[in-house]
Structure formats: C-alpha cells, structure tokens
C-alpha cells in the first residue's frame, strides 16, 4: 500500500569509494588522508549494521511503523509520501540548475510567444512536489501552504490536515546556503464536515498549535536531515544517499537547558525596542544569568538556524512580525517543546496563540528554556517598527 520508498535515481548512485579516486601525482599534494576517509566510511557502515542488529528502528519508516512507535497506518502513509517528496526537493536544491530556478521570475503558465512552460521558482516547484505527493497519499483532506493564498482541499475523507512552508530560505539558494521544509500535521475536524468547503478548509488550517499530531522540518544542507516529533520526543534522520533511506542519527534530541549562542539579524539593532537591546548587550558581554560571553550565529535561513539551536542550545529569534504562526512558528515550537525547549512570541507561549489568519505573522523566539525565560524577563523584546528591509 505504501508509495515506493525507492530512492530517486540520483540517490541510488553509490557513494564513491575514496581510494578509487586518489589524485594523480601533481606538483602539490591535496591535504586528504585517504586512509582516514576509508576508515571513516567503514566505521559508518559498521555503525549502521550494528543498529540493525540491535533491532532498533533504523529508518524513518521503521521508526513510525509497527516495529517503532506505531503512529498508525494512515500517518505512516502520509509520512512516507512526505519523505519521498522531500527527497525530490533535496535533489532539486542540490542540482546545477537550482540557482537559475531560484531566480527565474516564475509562473505556472506558458511563457508568452512560446508553447514551452516557463520554468518555475524552486519554492513553487517544491510546493507542487509536496502537494502532489500528499494528494497521492489519499490521507490528507486539506493543505495550507505558504505558497497558496488559501488552503487547498485534496481528499474529502483524508484523516489529516497538513500545514507547511515547502521551501523556506530559497532566497539563499544562489549562495548554496541551507534551506528547509517545515510541516505540521493535524487531525481533520470531522465535526465540521457539513460546512461549505472553503469554511471547512479554513477552520481546519487554523487549529491551535496545541492540537498538532506531528511536526517536523527537513534541512537541505551538507546533509539532508528529517527531524520530526509525534508528541513523544524528537528524532532526526539523515538521508543516506547510497540507499535513499532516512536513517536515525539523532535519537531523542534534547536541547541544552542553556546555550551560549544567540541568533538574530542584528543589523536591525536600532529598530529594536530597549528591552531586546539590553538583553543582547548583556549576554554578549557575559553579564547575564549565565556568566559567559555569548557568540552570534545567523544564517538567515529559519530551518538551519533552528536546527543548530536545537542541537547546541541558545536562542534563535526574529523579533519583528515576519515569520508565520501557522506553518513556521507552531511546528517549530512544538518540536522545541518536545525537545525540552520553548517557543515564544516574547510574551506568550506560541502554541497557545489561536491563529486567526492563515498567513499571520508574529515575532518568534525559539530555544533553550533558561535562555527564553531570561529573554522574556526583559519584557520589551518585540520589534514594533517594521519598515521593510531590502535584504
Ligand atoms: O530578514 P530577516 O528579518 O532577517 O528574516 C529572515 C528570515 O526570513 C526567512 O528568510 C523567511 O522569509 P520569507 O518567508 O520571506 O522567505 C527565514 O528563513 C529567515 O529566518
């Protein structure tokens, strides 16, 4: 019944054995230790074989299935289709054409004067890839996407509703900077099935974040990482390009209770409120509750900044009304909480904010519980000035 979990053609290509590609002698030597590389790849295979021997769920699909946490057949099928779509996107963003796709004016129709379809920008293509995969799953009633003005109805009796940002950070593609997909899954509200389609779709998409059944992100970077929670902790899986599987590499992620990194676009410092300036000035001087000088890291790609924060701790923020509640803040806050962290708008828990509009924006602060608490204690941390920025 499941969609083929066969990898994409490109992911079928076996990883080259480093020793077959030893460089021809030249007048300079590459600083590569091929013996070490060979050992590292042997170590990787030994690790994977061992995980299999222990009968631990090894792949994403094993993890969600009956041998793992058993989320139910319907949700397994949905996740299987979603991961398949994300593998396609991973190939797309890594392709030699990604940068020209990212920059093209885009459009879904034919270009004028030609009967050939105009190329579509990557975020539009990614949206179409996920939408069609979810449609084929037969398990999704409604999809609310950053790329669609209104929610899209797929299958009337599909048990789930999916909210998503199909490709966040695509403006970075030109410079090969990481991008990501963000998603959340709700149960369909069967009690409103009698309402007209538009109203049903809207109410299904505006469910409170506290009702999320699952949430995750896929990071397209040096590795492709599928990080997910079903409300019982957070696990991350890394795409093994030799088999096409997402392999469990980060079981039971726990965010450190305190980090030493803050992540924000601090060119906006002079548009910040006093409280936020004071907070950042304090922690970077090592004068906060944690007596260490904080470091700054900001990729300007939400999934990448959040992923690093989840692993290393600290706080990732965008203090202006910019990021979206329904398909960015809610799923990432659910993951943060499941990892022991927090998601806040500077005053309130994100998950308890009732969405009123699909594309609603808000300030977002995600990270280690002690860092978020300290930040909130400054009171005035939401940037009210939002003049619009060129870059
Ligand atoms: O310009 P800012 O305020 O630094 O915002 C950057 C944030 O905007 C995003 O690029 C998303 O913005 P878009 O939805 O307009 O693409 C995030 O990936 C990133 O974290």
Keywords:
5-stranded mixed sheet; 391 residues; 13 strands; 20% strand; 32% helix; disordered N terminus; binds 1,6-di-O-phosphono-beta-D-fructofuranose; Fructose-1,6-Bisphosphatase, Chain A, domain 1; alpha+beta; D-Maltodextrin-Binding Protein, domain 2; 2 domains
Biggest sheet architecture: 8 strands, mixed
Rg on CA atoms, Å: 22 Å
Order of helices and strands: HHHHHHEEEEHEEEEEHEHEHEEH
- Poorly predicted segments: 1-32, 34-39, 107-116
Catalytic activity: beta-D-fructose 1,6-bisphosphate + H2O = beta-D-fructose 6-phosphate + phosphate
Domain Fructose-1-6-bisphosphatase class 1 C-terminal: 255-378
Protein name: fructose-bisphosphatase
EC number: 3.1.3.11
Structure description:
The chain is of the alpha+beta class and 391 residues long. It contains eleven helices and 13 strands. The protein has two domains: 49-250, Fructose-1,6-Bisphosphatase, subunit A, domain 1 (Fructose-1,6-Bisphosphatase, Chain A, domain 1, 2-Layer Sandwich); 261-376, D-Maltodextrin-Binding Protein, domain 2. It has an eight-stranded mixed beta sheet with strand order 2-1-3-4-5-6-7-8, sandwiched between helices. It has a five-stranded mixed beta sheet with strand order 10-9-11-13-12, with helices on both faces. It starts with 8 loop residues before the first helix and ends in a 15-residue tail after the last helix. The relative contact order is 0.11. Bound molecules: 1,6-di-O-phosphono-beta-D-fructofuranose. 1,6-di-O-phosphono-beta-D-fructofuranose (FBP) binds at residues 168-169, 171, 265, 300-302, 305, 318, 320, 322, 389.
């Amino acid at each position: 019944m499941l969609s083929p979990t066969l990898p994409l053609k490109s992911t079928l290509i076996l990883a080259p054995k480093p020793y077959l590609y030893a460089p021809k002698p030249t007048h300079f030597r590459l600083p590569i230790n091929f013996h070490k590389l060979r050992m590292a790849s042997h170590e990787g295979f030994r690790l994977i074989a061992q995980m299999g021997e222990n009968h631990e769920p090894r792949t994403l699909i094993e993890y969600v299935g009956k041998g793992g946490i058993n989320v139910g057949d319907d949700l397994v099928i949905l996740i299987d289709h979603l991961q398949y779509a994300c593998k396609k996107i991973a190939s797309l963003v890594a392709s030699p054409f990604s940068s020209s796709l990212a920059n093209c004016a885009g459009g879904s129709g034919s270009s004028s004067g030609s009967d050939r379809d105009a190329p579509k920008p990557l975020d539009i293509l990614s949206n179409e890839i996920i939408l069609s995969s979810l449609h084929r799953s037969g398990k999704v009633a409604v999809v609310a996407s950053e790329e669609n003005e209104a929610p899209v109805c797929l299958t009337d009796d599909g048990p789930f509703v999916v909210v998503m940002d199909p490709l966040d950070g695509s403006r970075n593609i030109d410079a090969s900077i990481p991008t990501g997909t963000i998603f959340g899954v709700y149960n369909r509200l069967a009690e409103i099935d009698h309402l007209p389609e538009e109203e049903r779709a809207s109410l299904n998409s505006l469910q409170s974040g506290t009702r999320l059944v699952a949430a995750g992100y896929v990071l397209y970077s040096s590795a492709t990482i599928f990080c997910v929670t079903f409300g019982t902790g957070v696990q991350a899986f890394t795409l093994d390009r030799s088999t096409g599987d997402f392999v469990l590499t980060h079981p039971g992620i726990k965010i450190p209770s305190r980090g030493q990194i803050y992540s924000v676009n601090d060119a906006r410092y002079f548009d910040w409120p006093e409280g936020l300036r004071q907070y950042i000035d304090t922690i970077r001087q090592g004068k906060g509750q944690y007596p260490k000088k904080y470091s700054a890291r900001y990729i300007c790609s939400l999934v990448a900044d959040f992923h690093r924060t989840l692993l290393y701790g600290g706080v990732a923020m965008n203090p202006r009304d910019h990021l979206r509640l329904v398909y960015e803040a809610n799923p990432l806050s659910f993951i943060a909480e499941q990892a022991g962290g927090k998601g806040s708008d500077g005053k309130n828990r994100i998950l308890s904010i009732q969405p009123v509009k699909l594309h609603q924006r808000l300030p977002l602060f995600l990270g280690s519980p002690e860092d978020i608490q300290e930040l909130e204690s400054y009171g005035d941390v939401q940037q009210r000035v939002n003049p619009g920025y060129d870059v």
